[in-house]
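User: What would this chain look like folded?
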Amino acid sequence: MASHTQDVHVQPADPLPLAGVTVVAVEQAVSAPFATRQLADLGARVVKVERPDGGDFARGYDTAAHGLASHFVWANRGKESLALDLKDPRGLEVLHGLLAGADVFVQNLAQGAAARLGLDSAALCARYPRLVAVDVSGYGPQGPYAHKRAYDMLVQCEAGLVSVTGTPGQPVKAGIPAADIAAAMYAFSGVLAALLRRGVTGRGGRVEVSMLDALAEWMGHPLHHTMHGGEQPARTGLAHAVIAPYDAYATADGDRVLLSVQNDREWRRLAEQVLERPELAEDPAYATNAARTRGREKTDAVVAEALGRLDAAEAVRRLEAAGIACARLNSVAQLAHHPQLAARDRWREVGSPTGPLRALLPPIGLPGGAAPRMGAVPALGEHTDALLRALGMSGAQIATLRRDGVIA
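Assistant: Here's the prediction, encoded as structure tokens.
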């Protein structure tokens, strides 16, 4: 009998969802750059327009990333840098040449600056009907706060985040730029929604995002608790206001392990298998969550005593064996070497002006599709000449613009 081999057809990977989309961004700091980096990761071509005299000021925040600024490295991979003076009419003309073929424009200049240049979303959408134009601001375009400076920490304070973060005696800001990140992610999702709508209507449109609006949305739980319950949730550090034990406890090797007991059955298992004090399962001072919360200091003391005799690895092993939710209180350095990230192959290298840098894959996974486009971190003006040549400029014209300081 003749044997037959069956052809195996390998399904080609789906293209990145934003392949073919061109984004032009006049951006600085974190909120807009982090939004456009998400677009670049998903395949969009992002042209970052920077000032010739130093570029995005986030380039100068620090030199921690092999001589580059850590904020800039994080928020700007995969972009093309065009160093362009928009206050010069020739520079503005170059920008409009790019916008004529762009799908998305994003800006987070100081309030009013884009409008003075004719680059606010209303003006651009009137001139380019298919363009999605995004204004990212601190407090929005109207109202008494519209022209206030809006740095991340200031917006965290205005949004009430600082009032619910920290210990009973000390409010603290979040250790990451929460207001910037919130605005960035709403700008990102706003662009995606507007592009979907354009696919139906053929028209782009305006997208407005403010840092205060974005962070106020993230404050939903304490906001509704306060508005409808009449009392602001207390600051409790790592503890929980109505559950005990729920905190981080020091271990014998100097680490800290956080655990959370969600019900009385879990308390029984904790008492018997981890604390090795089974009598506490029946003791009226500990047997119910209400009792444990009323006597939080005593509850925490018995847990702290038991975990203080164990190293962190053994504490976690016992807690997991008992079915108690737990986590290590990791440092940032420990996150950089987290075994779960390593096991899932979440790290890649991206290029930069100072050599390769480690970077995490973007959180959005698209199984079966092309890999995220994690391009290099650009040097200031690295792509200026190529972009101008693509607009039809000659070498002599480019040299004149550079001589006059319009480009770099």
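The chain has a mean pLDDT of 95. If you want, I can go into more detail on any region.
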